[in-house]
Amino acid sequence: MSKDRTDYLLNIEEVLGPKLREKLPRFAVNFLKRRIHEEEINDCIMKAEHYCGARFFDEALKYVDITYKVRGAENLDPTRKYIFACNHPLGGPEALIIGSLFYHIYGGGFKVPSNQLLMNMKPLAEFFTPVKVQSKSGQGRDISAKIAAMFESDEQVLVFPAGLCARKIKGKVTEMPWKKMFVTQARKYERDVVPVHISGSNSAKYHFFSWISRVLGLKMNIAMLFLVDELFNKRGTEFTITIGKPIPYTHFDSSKTDIQWAAEVKNMVEELSKDNGCPPNM
Predict the structure, then answer these.
(1) Which domains does the chain have, with CATH numbers?
(2) pLDDT in tens, 4-40
(3) Residues 20, 121, 231, 281: is their CA dihedral positive or negative?
(4) Nearest to 88 by CA among 22, 13, 4, 163
(5) Are β-strands 192-198 and 82-86 bridged in parallel, bridged antiparallel, or unpaired?
(6) For residues 130 and 145, what is the distance between their CA atoms, to the nearest angstrom?
(7) How does pLDDT run across 211-228, given as a tens digit for each residue?
(8) Distance (Å, rounded) from C-alpha 177 to C-alpha 175?
């Protein structure tokens, strides 16, 4: 076991930090390890031929036996810098799938705004730019600078404008309203926007705990504890990813507000799913 490889292993106790470890009983720590599949994730890292960097996306998909097919790849110009705006049905597989796709098209140069928790996935940490997904008090100077650097870079940028995974509302899997940041940044940094749809949805168990969190008014969505479960439960699944035609950044003019433009792009993404042969998930 090489030192380089072990440096990339997930350590839940390290993620929790000393103060939280002292407060939590041992059974709670062990529960978190099982829910986040610490052992399986580390087994994947140890068995992967490429245990870090862009090639790890393929290794991770292979380990969890997830495949995908692509529609609309011909819409992309490999020489252009884009903002890819994608629906967020699952919370894990879509990032791995699009990461794999980008590796094969662009060689791995891309960034994804994400929550701080994903920064602890060391094999893929280089692709994530931390944001405060549900923050109402702004991002802070350090995070804002990292976001600006991400859009100024030569790398592709993937965003999930909903911020949160799709929820089940009135019996239907429903994408949350899209935030406007990607529209504002597209115009500011002169990046065309590519609408992207990915199939799939989380299990009834996930949606039940998400509903319970809302009913109880919890600050934390306890369903998030089961997101890695959802990933491993998708073994043997083939997903469909559909890529739409790029939208010129000049399209987002003053005739609508940025939040209205974001809603329009969301509708475009939903349209992409109409003939993919998969159940609706927006």
Answers:
(1) 1-47 (no CATH), 54-272 (3.40.1130.10)
(2) 788 999 999 998 888 888 889 999 999 999 999 999 9
(3) positive
(4) 163
(5) parallel
(6) 11
(7) 999 888 888 788 888 999
(8) 7
